[in-house]
Predict the 3D structure of the following.
Amino acid sequence: MFRITECLSVGPFASPERGPQLLAAGVTHVLNVSDGPSHVSSATGFVEVVDVPLRDSSRLTPARTREVLDTLHRLASAPDAHVYVHCVYGQLRSPTILWLYLIALGVPPRDAQDWIESRAPDAVAGHYRMVDHEHVLLAQKHGLANFFPNPRPNLIVLVPLIEGE
């Protein structure tokens, strides 16, 4: 798990073996953007687990982009939520979705990419197979129209990098 902000983390599949580690790290909500169903649930200790299946080999449609942004925003807006966004390896889909969400919250695209990629070394935020400049504009417009005022300012408060990482 790679913590990006105080409330948002990204990483590989939330397997049954990884579930207790995520709970111990304070994760309350899970957004699975892999193409397979979740293996953790509220029965295993999470407040909510949502599957929004995505493929990393094709562009996100505008409708699917809005759906996943709205889902992530709903989860992240819950009081005291810490959302773990994951796909299979935590390299393309989940970093790209988190990147779009940060952009929707007003973070400049390059900054959002740097935040994610500096904390999750194998991540590629905004991967070209999934998104292009139109997705950036969509995230910005959708966020302005739907996510403000931001109910939790700490959604965009970075977790400091640990020296040597």
About this structure: The radius of gyration is 14 Å. The chain has a mean pLDDT of 95. The beta strands are 2-3, 8-11, 29-32, 48-51, 83-86. The CA atoms of residues 62 and 135 lie 8 Å apart.
